[in-house]
Here is the input.
Amino acid sequence: MDKKALVSGASRGIGRAIAEALAQKGYHLYLTCRYREDLLLDLKYRLEQRYGITCDIQCCDMGDDSQVSRLFEKIDRLDVLVNNAGISYIGLLSEMKPEQWQEIINTNLSSVFYTCRQAIPLMLKEKSGRIVNISSIWGSVGASMEVAYSATKGGVNSLTKALAKELAPSHICVNALACGVIDTEMNDCLDEEERQILQAEIPADRFGQPEEVAQMVLQIIEAPEYMTGQIIGLDGGW
Here is the structure.
C-alpha cells in the first residue's frame, strides 16, 4: 500500500529537505506552509516529476486548530507525521509582547497537539505510525534571548515523551529530533561576525545542513519500533 506522510513547514529549509527525502523513499506527501505557497507549489511539481509521487499542498496556519482540522479532512491515511512548523523570537523577554509570546506558543507547541490529535485516529486504524517532532537543543538547556522559543521546544520534548508512552501499546512511535544550529533562513538575523563566533563554539566547526536533518528523520522513522519517546540530538557535538 502507498505510504503517506505529512510535513508541516515544508516550503523552505528543514521541512523542504525532509519532504524531498521522503519523496525519494516513495512517500506520497501532504505538505503545508503558512505564507510561501509559491515555493510549496514549485516543490510539489519538482517532487512529482522527479520521484513519481503525489504532493497535496496547502497554506495552513498549523497553530490554528480549525485550519488543521480542515487540512485533515482530505487525509484518509497517514503513516508518518513530521511536525516541523516553527518560528523564533530573539530579544529580551521583558520587551516581548503578549501577542508575540502567544504566536510562538501556537506555532511551535500547540500545532503539535493539533496535528497529533488528528493523526492518531488514522494511525490507530492501521495499528502503526511514526510521529517525529522537530525540536531544538534549546528545549533541553534554554537559550538567553530566546526564552519563548526555548519554552516551546521544552514543551515539545515533554509532549513527545508522554505521548510515546500513551501510544506505545498501539505500535505508534513518537520521537523528537533536537537540532543544533542548522544553516537555514532562521539564522539570517546573524551577521558574519556572529556566525563565526557561534561556529567556533561547535566542535564540528560548522553549521548543520537541512539535508542532514532529513537523513536523521528517515533513520528515526525506519528505526525499530522499540525506539520511542526519545529526544535525539543532532548538534555537531555542541
Q: What stands out?
A: The chain has a mean pLDDT of 94. The chain has one domain: 4-234. The longest strand covers residues 129-136. Residues 4-234 form a domain with the Rossmann fold fold (CATH 3.40.50.720).
